[in-house]
Amino acid sequence: MAVYTNIPPEELEAFLAEYDLGPLKRVDGIAEGVENTNYLIETEAGRAILTLYEKRVREEELPWFLGLMQHLARRGLKCPTPVIARDGVALRRLMDRPAAITTFLTGRPIETITASACFSLGQSLARMHLLGDGFRAHRPNSLGPDAWRPLLNSCHGAADTVQPGLTAELENAISEVLAAWPASGSLPVGQIHADLFPDNAFFERGNVSGLIDFYFACTDLLAYDLAICLNAWCFPDERTPDAALMAGLMGGYQSIRPLAAEEKAALPALVQGASIRFLLTRLYDWVNTPVDAIVTRKDPLAYHHRLVAWRADARGLLHV
Ligand SMILES: Nc1ncnc2c1ncn2[C@@H]1O[C@H](COP(=O)(O)OP(=O)(O)O)[C@@H](O)[C@H]1O
Ligand SMILES: N[C@@H](CCOP(=O)(O)O)C(=O)O
Q1: Homologous superfamily, domain 115-318
Q2: Residue ranges matching CATH 3.90.1200.10 in the chain
Q3: Mean pLDDT per 10-residue run, the chain (320 residues)?
Q4: pTM
Q5: Which atom of ligand 1 lies at the shortest distance from residue 215's CA?
Q6: Which residues contact ligand 2 via a Cβ below 6 A?
Q7: What is the four-CA torsion angle of 2, 8, 14, 20, rounded to 10 degrees?
Q8: What is the CATH number of domain 9-103?
Q9: Is the CB of 30 within 6 Å of ligand 1?
Q10: Which CDD domains does the record match to this protein (predicted)?
Q11: 3-state DSSP call for residue 211?
């Protein structure tokens, strides 16, 4: 996370007075992350995370995200759950922004990604897909294929300042991937995390202990979530996919939820789509992040490298 919004101590105290958490002992801004403002708070009741929702998160969608986390946690997934204030409401306002407190998860992101960590991550992803099944509400993917061209256009050619010729290359890649994208209804759909990067999975003793950051979650192709993870977890040098990491991830996932033949066949398009989606949001952020924000901008070109690798031979790399 990042800190876009500072909270004066008296505002925080007034906010916390609505909860049964006891007096505040400590508050720290969390520098990790990109999307929202997060604080680690410690009260008499223990540690918790206070999030002020910024940027891309739409206020009217927050009940969906918080509801999904509550559903998954109740069904046994280790993920943050909304803390409810004395009036029964979890989603509140602070500093003129929507805000919520969620439970603190133990564990840490893994330092070195190994095949065994990927196996465990794949299992957690597949479990999440199965557990999400009973959550009937539907949230379309606001960063899905229909959003890519508008997102590229909203960068007004800035891709070329990052790398000459990138705008045209992306226009071309988007057309090709859209043409290969699975038709509606042809692959299993469910609740997906859609941002399960290494910073959003906590590990303890080598295994996944919890998943965080569900604010891109949506109802979309389950195999697309796996494609996002193949991009995020399996490129140790940011350029070339590692066969052992991919085998670990695919193996872990399929040990819980085997892929259908049509899902395997669609993976080459899905991994390219995932590269495009993260390349575009990173590009957008690269040119639009406020200078005074405490945040580390992420490199758009890291996802260009992935896209280039997949476009050269996705089928061969994925062994599908
Ligand atoms: N429930 C949680 N338990 C423990 N730490 C958390 C929790 N949620 C967030 N964090 C910490 O805050 C950081 C940023 O959270 P994240 O949800 O990824 O923010 P953003 O949505 O802004 O990207 C995480 O990397 C982690 O260090
Ligand atoms: N995972 C995305 C950016 C979103 O950041 P997060 O902190 O919400 O995971 C990327 O790497 O581009």
Answers
A1: Aminoglycoside phosphotransferase (APH), C-terminal lobe (3.90.1200.10)
A2: 115-318
A3: 88 97 96 88 97 88 96 97 96 96 97 98 98 94 97 92 95 98 97 97 98 96 98 97 98 98 98 98 85 74 98 96
A4: 0.94
A5: 21
A6: 33-35, 195, 197, 199-200, 213, 278, 281-282, 298
A7: 40
A8: 3.30.200.20
A9: yes
A10: HomoserineK_II
A11: strand
